Amino acid sequence: MKNERVIEIFKTTGVLQEGHFKLSSGLHSNQYLQCAQVLQYPVYAQELAEALAEKFKDIEIDVVVGPAMGGVTLAYAVGLALEKKTIFTEREDGKMTLRRGFRLNKGDKVLVVDDVLTTGKSINEVVEVLNQTGSELVAVGTLVDRRSKEINFEVPTESMLKVDVKAYDPKECPMCQEGLEITKPGSRYL
């Protein structure tokens, strides 16, 4: 899938939002990519998921795992495209864990899928869960890569779109200095 098509889908579904946002990382930004907007449309979600899954066609994968909340729907759609078992992790008492009877087995080869990659914190939390189960991270996939610095998961890492969205330390945030109201759209502390 070409970048132009990804951008067309994102524009059609209202993924890119403008304003003053507090990101899950604690950083502030004047733009927010709300991928849930595209994931509410199954046809677009599956089109993107199939294109993302295609990037991993030559990698042996047993299980697709997505961190709640952003990775749940996308992981399911990628798992469907790959015809693989799909589960999600979620936070319990602030710590990422497997619940609901989900299990990973020692040696399972895992593709971790999330909606947006910014700091890598959610994905690294999932990797901690994988390490505890003896399963193996073999690849990482996201809809959007908005990293401002290199994050190396030491496995193939693919995204449908790389964007350069500015993120600011709250002490240096120009929107804060202007007194603009802030919105926290992420799900890290739900």
TrEMBL record:
Q: Which InterPro entries match?
A: OPRT, Orotate_PRibTrfase_bac, PRTase-like, PRTase_dom
Q: According to the UniProt record, what class of enzyme is this? A: transferase
Phosphoribosyltransferase domain ranges (all copies): 37-151
Report the Gene3D superfamilies cross-referenced here: 3.40.50.2020
Q: What is this protein called?
A: Orotate phosphoribosyltransferase
**What this chain does, per the record?**
Catalyzes the transfer of a ribosyl phosphate group from 5-phosphoribose 1-diphosphate to orotate, leading to the formation of orotidine monophosphate (OMP).
Its family remark reads:
Belongs to the purine/pyrimidine phosphoribosyltransferase family. PyrE subfamily.
Binding site residues for 5-phospho-alpha-D-ribose 1-diphosphate:
D114, D115, V116, L117, T118, T119, G120, K121, S122
